[in-house]
Amino acid sequence: MGDLARNERSRLAGMCVEVLRDRAGVYGVCMTGGQKELHTHGRLITRPDRVLETSRYASYQFIQPIHRYSLEVRFWRLLHDAMLARHGFERIDRHLSWWSDDPKQQAANRRIYFGLKQGAKRIVNSYLAKAFAVANLEALQLTRRYPFDYRSDLYAAFCDHPYARQLGDVFPALALMAYTGIYAGDNADGVRHEARTMIRAGRELKDIARLFDLPMAFRRFKPAVADRALRTLCLDNVDLIHAYCPTTTHGQRLWLTALPIAKGAGQDYLRWVAKNSTELAATKLGVRHMVEDIMDWAKASAAAGVPQETWECIGLAGNPRAYSRTISSIIRGSRHVTRRFNPEMSRETVLQLSDEWHDAIADADHDGQPVSFPDPWYDGDTVDGYQIIPITDSAELYQEGRRMRHCIAQSMDQVRWGQMCVYTVLDADKHIATFNLIRTADIPNLDQLRGPCNRTVAKPIAQAVRKWLRWCNRKHGRGRCPEVARR
Fold first, then answer.
1. Domain count, the chain
2. Are residues 457 and 354 in the same domain?
3. Domain region containing 354
4. Interval 297-318: pLDDT, tens
5. Is residue 401 located within the same domain as residue 336?
6. What is the value of pTM for the model shown?
7. Last residue of a domain, which of 106, 135, 164?
8. Of the residues 364, 381, 409, which one is the last residue of a structural domain?
9. Hey, which of 88-97, 178-187, 198-207, 344-353 has the most confident mean pLDDT?
């Protein structure tokens, strides 16, 4: 084991960051290392005449204090490992007492570790500055407006022709279709090649967009969100884009978060959300919660206008068990609707009616004998001081909804039939949150986690719940979660 560790430390110690040069000067940066021969661990090429040699996942920007994985971050991590190896530290022992049992030495080693980490970042950024100095500045600035996953392909395209840069600026969604792998239609490579030929020839945008069956309405989307628009919206949403799509990048992020969720409640609710989503909350998580909460009332409102006999016919004609699981809870909620949803309602009216409906659901009395639920998929536990306790019968579920002022009681049939498992979270015997697990890819996953009155929970609570779920998934797999029913 000692020889293996020494060999690994020796290999890491040989790694270094290099500026790539040829007779014309600097053209990029790479990470190299190895014992007997030179190994390249990625190349960031910025000079336009050699840009096709660059590796994938380049972000074409400096390493920031808050960063995500990219080729530049890989350079930083490898150089940090190399610098640790030169100081005699093995990377694998970083979390094991900081390479020592002596508290004073541990403190000294921590200082070395983080000092080398900052030093490695400064070195990599200084070399990136040399590479960016020879880049096509216009193409570089435009590339940085797009998500990381597409920047390598787009920078090469923007360096190739000025019309490509013009397209990337005025129609980001079409640029993604033409120059990246996001388009997956028939004969995708041939269509992209034809589109690139048309771009270099200066053809009209509508002719190029027609190759991909891309509506011109998608021209509204900013570079940072154009890929998400292509993945989540369809041709049926073109009128909504023209009428309600926000003009700012942040507004479009909120809008694209809300619309896929709202589709589950019909076209009327989808249109209302398209019009009002950016005013519901300031964050994507907040918008998601608000759209889901209002959608519960909107579904119950739609059910309130359907006679009971019609629901019974639907249940008898289809799968009676599926009918009970998915429709009976909506019918139960429709009894508490005092005013039906209308897409012309204002935001204030909808929020008020939704809150009143949720309060009515929470206050509804539990009638009849408690119905026992199947065994919880995972047993409860205490994590970071928070108690996680499963809900075991219908009476507890109604009490949880009343106590927390939300509509979890609407999920009784789903819990009863094994589609969902509900837990409550306590802090010193005080109920502070409710969450439910659902079956996704045959493994229980977290669906919703809410505090009182459907508020977003504090970060420590969310971290504790996710930590508990990760531990349960690793130790118990699917636990007592039933197999997905097949019809």
1. 4
2. no
3. 245-364
4. 888 887 766 565 554 554 434 4
5. no
6. 0.76
7. 135
8. 364
9. 198-207
